[in-house]
Write a structure and sequence with these properties.
The protein is an all-alpha fold. The chain has 19 helices and no strands. The protein has a domain of 255 residues. 45% of the residues are buried.
């Protein structure tokens, strides 16, 4: 059975990869790499797990592992090839560009300098995990999609969101087990990542909460990645619902319900809080003050449910979370303190591959690891952390400007989605190494890059208009 699934997955990946490369190389559609990433990355870990379960071959797993980087590098090379006058390329760098370049340059400097105890190979692998999202951002920065192509990307996101929820329902109501218990996830982690199975389900502790209650991940790598990713699906459904005619808007309600359903199945506290933060952000952007009221009312209803109606296990789960008495919450605090202690002792940084949960970070060298900002702060110092934060927030700011001022509805939808996803991930960034969740991380960075490109276009077209109001970031 595993062999059959592997053959089907391999065929789907091969067809998608070859079609994308053909479009990029022969039609000059180098930006089409984003379609392959959006369709492949949600199933990435499941693909690797099934590949190892079926073959027991690390080499075959390795072939699937490198596909995501290869498609990005091909896109970069094709983009360079199709530049008719590369030395006449117009560099109109915005604030996000400068901050991203500064962050990548600092990381490259740390790769070359003899800083830290990690091996050069591990440093190089970690630098790759920083560089590829940077490439994705700059490819987005040069993307000019038409409305139909943007529509395709949204359709992929909608399908992924609905499919994730349907698999969650299968896990919960039919299998009464995690999909990962059948896909070879435990074997893959043990033999490829050298991670011993843990928890009551032979996976990792991430797949359960207090009292061994299941936290489902659908076909994503873990419940935290599922929770972060469906925030994108919900936000995409919402913007289409708000900007479509009423008679055509009901399918997007289904997408939103599926996103919320998967969020419940994942049982991620940070993502629950992020969901309400994202709703508040959306309400402010649209000036939908009723939505803020709805959010407050929903929060009060949740509090009433916990206090008066919730089962005892769930009640104490919430109370322990607020008191940081829950093992998971306490673990976050410990990791934060360790990271902050390192940043105070070594404000210039202690080197690449010395913090976080990325595969090249060895357990005996790891310092902190459950806060994306502090992970970069430990490795690249306060400067590296501030450059990352600056790129993140200026990207959101310029994307919102592009959303409000673009005359292209599809482009405005894309800019809105990029901004709201990055804002929605703000709280998960405090409790997880979110940049390793390649689907939501890479796709949202591409959206930010595309949105900054739209901002740059708008800025150029208004330079001679004294009545226009532009940000001065």
């Amino acid at each position: 059975m595993a062999i059959i699934f592997l053959v089907l997955i391999a065929l789907a990946v091969a067809v998608g990869f070859l079609w994308t490369v053909q479009q990029m190389v022969f039609a000059g559609k180098w930006a089409y790499f984003v379609f392959f990433l959006a369709a492949f990355l949600p199933f990435y870990i499941t693909t690797l797990s099934v590949a190892y379960l079926a073959t027991g071959s690390a080499e075959i797993v390795g072939l699937f592992q490198v596909i995501k980087e290869v498609i990005v590098l091909i896109a970069v090379l094709v983009w360079l090839f199709y530049q008719k006058r590369p030395f006449d390329y117009p560099f109109r760098l915005q604030s996000t560009d400068w901050l991203m370049l500064g962050f990548l340059s600092l990381a490259f400097l740390f790769l070359l300098l003899p800083v830290g105890e990690a091996s050069f190979v591990n440093k190089a692998l970690y630098f790759k995990s920083i560089l590829i999202p940077g490439f994705v951002y700059f490819l987005g920065r040069n993307t000019r999609f038409n409305g139909r192509e943007i529509h395709w990307l949204f359709q992929i996101i909608f399908v992924v969101t609905i499919a994730a929820f349907l698999v969650n329902c299968l896990e919960s109501f039919v299998l009464d087990a995690h999909l990962q218990q059948f896909s070879g996830y435990g074997l893959y982690n043990l033999h490829i990542n050298d991670i011993e199975p843990s928890g009551h389900y032979g996976l990792t502790w991430t797949f359960e909460s207090t009292g061994a209650l299941k936290r489902l991940a659908s076909f994503f790598s873990d419940p935290l990645e599922l929770a972060s990713s469906v925030l994108m699906g919900f936000s995409a459904g919402l913007i289409w619902f708000l900007t479509s005619k009423k008679e055509y808007s009901w399918p997007y309600l289904i997408v939103m319900v599926c996103g919320m359903g998967s969020l419940v199945f994942a049982s991620s506290r940070a993502s629950f809080a992020a969901f309400f933060l994202m709703l508040g952000f959306i309400a402010l952007v649209f000036q939908l003050y009723r939505l803020i009221g709805l959010g407050i009312a929903s929060f009060l209803l949740f509090v009433m449910y916990v206090v008066f109606f919730a089962p005892e296990d769930f009640y104490f789960f919430v109370i322990d979370t607020l008191r940081f008495a829950d093992p998971s919450s306490a673990g976050h605090v410990v990791e934060w303190l360790l990271a902050l202690d390192s940043m105070v002792a070594s404000p210039q940084g202690i080197g690449l591959a010395m913090s976080g949960n990325f595969g090249s970070v060895t357990e005996d060298l790891k310092t902190g690891g459950e806060n994306q900002f502090l992970i970069y702060g430990v490795q690249l110092g306060w400067l590296g952390m501030l450059l990352y934060i600056g790129a993140l927030f200026t990207g959101v700011y310029l994307s919102i400007f592009a959303f409000r001022h673009s005359d292209n509805l599809q482009m405005a939808r894309l800019a809105f989605l990029g901004a709201t996803v990055k804002m929605g991930l703000l709280l998960p960034l405090f409790t997880a190494n979110v940049e390793i969740y390649t689907f939501v991380s890479w796709i949202s960075w591409w959206m930010i890059g595309t949105s900054v490109n739209e901002y740059s276009r708008i800025k150029q077209s208004r330079l001679n208009d004294p009545t226009s109001s532009l940000p001065t970031l």
